[in-house]
TrEMBL record:
Biochemical pathway: One-carbon metabolism; tetrahydrofolate interconversion
Tetrahydrofolate dehydrogenase/cyclohydrolase catalytic domain location: 6-121
Protein name (database record): Bifunctional protein FolD
SUPFAM superfamilies linked: Aminoacid dehydrogenase-like, N-terminal domain (SSF53223), NAD(P)-binding Rossmann-fold domains (SSF51735)
Annotated organism of origin: Adhaeretor mobilis
């Protein structure tokens, strides 16, 4: 039987509708509108699309968004100055610096400069550390989107073998930690794989839940998947065939029990978690 296709887009819509209610309640209670500053440097076409989608998402749930567009030639000091201003601007609760940044800018230096209180991507080392210790201030958006998908689709993670392919700072590394922590969407036995892993197919075939975030189109083939496994595709690869994931969808859907599509899977949930984090940031600011 072919896999059940997990509809991330529909779930994202449901979560946005829930969030819209919470935003109204927050505004009534505090007379403050949760606000996100999005910073886009240069003219990367994919980044333009993402930032536009994120702003539209904000509108849908009643979060105010402010866009800062800087030229491709922006220096690191100029960007640091803007971030400093956003950090001290009390009307801004969340700051998103869209990646990638132009080559003359050190991304780590920029991410480190965002106030941890406004770090809605949860890229700041303070927030990474708090998450690892199981007392998160924010959860990183893509890993949190994957975890919410598993929780809300009723996919048990406790005691399961989870194999994460890819060790990026944005997805693989934090997600592998989160799924090993105690609690809903966690308590899994986690294996993290990367370019040095020996006999990757043998490892991925052990997965009850296989999560792929490696950035290579159609990398995971049917022979790498245990029959009945849940397969979560985090890939976003732009090819001549359009946007495709890291999983060979047509072949793997004949093997897996559940599978996320690209587009329409993890991507929309990533964007929703940015909204969740912005409301959380506004709540935390209000509690201070
Ligand atoms: N500071 C920062 N934070 C990020 O979270 C961040 C980033 N920079 N840089 C780029 C990556 C990538 N990313 C995606 C978000 C949504 C979709 C998404 O919504 N995808 C839709 C389709 C999008 C399309 O049609 O192009 C889908 O899969 O259905 C994809 C990718 C966030 N990133
Ligand atoms: Mg760069």
């Amino acid at each position: 039987m072919p896999a059940n296709i997990l509809d991330g887009k529909a779930l994202a819509k449901t979560i946005r509708e829930e969030l819209a209610v919470e935003v109204v309640e927050f505004i009534q209670q505090h007379e403050v509108v949760p606000s996100l500053a999005a910073v886009l440097v240069g003219e990367d076409p994919a980044s333009e699309v993402y930032v536009r989608m994120k702003r539209r998402d904000c509108e849908q749930v009643g979060i105010h968004s402010v866009m800062h567009r800087l030229p491709e030639t922006t220096t690191q000091d100029e960007l640091l100055k803007l971030i400093g201003e956003l950090n001290t601007n009390a009307s801004i609760h969340g700051i998103l610096v869209q990646l990638p940044l132009p080559g003359q800018i050190n991304e780590q230096a920029i991410l480190d400069a965002v106030s941890p209180d406004k770090d809605v991507d949860s890229f700041h080392p303070t927030n990474v550390g708090l998450m690892v210790q199981g007392r998160p201030r924010f959860l990183p958006c893509t890993p949190s989107g994957v975890q919410q998908l598993l929780i809300r689709e009723g996919i048990e993670t406790s005691g399961k073998n989870v194999v994460v392919v890819g060790r990026s700072e944005i997805v693989g590394k934090p997600l592998s930690v989160m799924m090993g922590l105690r609690g809903p969407g966690g308590d899994a036995t986690v294996t993290i794989c990367h370019s040095r892993t020996k006999d990757l197919p043998a490892v991925t075939r052990e997965a009850d839940i296989l999560i792929v975030a490696i950035g290579k189109a159609n990398f995971v083939t049917a022979d790498m998947v245990k029959p009945g496994a849940v397969v979560i595709d985090v890939g976003v690869n732009r090819t001549d065939d359009g946007l495709v994931g890291d999983v060979d969808f047509d072949a793997v859907k004949e093997i897996a029990s559940q599978l996320t599509p690209v587009p329409g899977g993890v991507g929309p949930l990533t964007r929703v978690m940015l909204l969740v984090n912005t409301l959380t940031a506004a709540r935390q600011a209000q509690a201070k």
